[in-house]
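thread: overnight batch results

M.L. [08:02]
morning all. the overnight job finished for the chain we discussed friday. pasting input first so we're all looking at the same thing
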Amino acid sequence: MKKNSFTIFGQGFVGTNISIFLKKRKCKIFIPKKGKYKFKKNLHNVIYCIGNQNWLKDPKITFDANLGLVREIIFNNKFDSFTLLSTTRLYFANVEGKTSENDPVRINSNKKNFLYNSLKIAAENLCLTLNNKNIKVIRMSNLYGDNFTNQAYLLPTWIRNSILNKKIDLYINKNSTKDFIYVDDAFDVLLKIIKKGKYRVYNVASGKNIKLFKILKEIKKITNCKINYTNRSNIVKEPKINIKRIVNEFNFKPKNNLIDLLNDLIINYKNNLLK
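M.L. [08:03]
and the structure it wrote out:
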């Protein structure tokens, strides 16, 4: 196995940040062109980051991105390891709040917004059904970092709007809570899992939830923007993600705190605007 050679499928927020992270560590990276998923050469360590959450607008693209292409790549290519980046969203329907990797996850087939979750579960099950210990699943929490290219992520959208529009329109209840993890913290443990992880499934999260109100308050303090609150939406409290597996196996502890990094994130975004 070439431990420092990687193939990255997907160049959205996650894929782009993984590529940056690996390049800084002198890793060899191959980024396939969009639409090409079959190769004669060994792809070595594949990280699958393609994802699409726009299930209502285009369910076919959502299907292909979250399941169809996973199957195509796994069965049509040679690789040393394959890592599927999944999501901790899968635990949201667990009414008991159980979030360890061994806990069952639930879906509601009567709700359209569960299509994304259903496809992620199916992709995970496909990977885990194959008798290959080097095919692993990583359930990622809400990532944040300096790359603001993706319009769909909550935190980059807030920071962008606070600077460009001088306001943030909040469409989720301010008392909602989420788990956020900095990209470098997440990818550092991701590499360890790929190279020497003992299990097939891992949660990668900070293990701590933070109220959105606390984040917004800090953004307002730094940028002097206006925040238009609405309490019409329900409070969404994501379950606290169990990270005992990565703590016990890799002594994992996040080095970065979101509130502490907000000022730097905002400054970096302003600087990028001036380029």
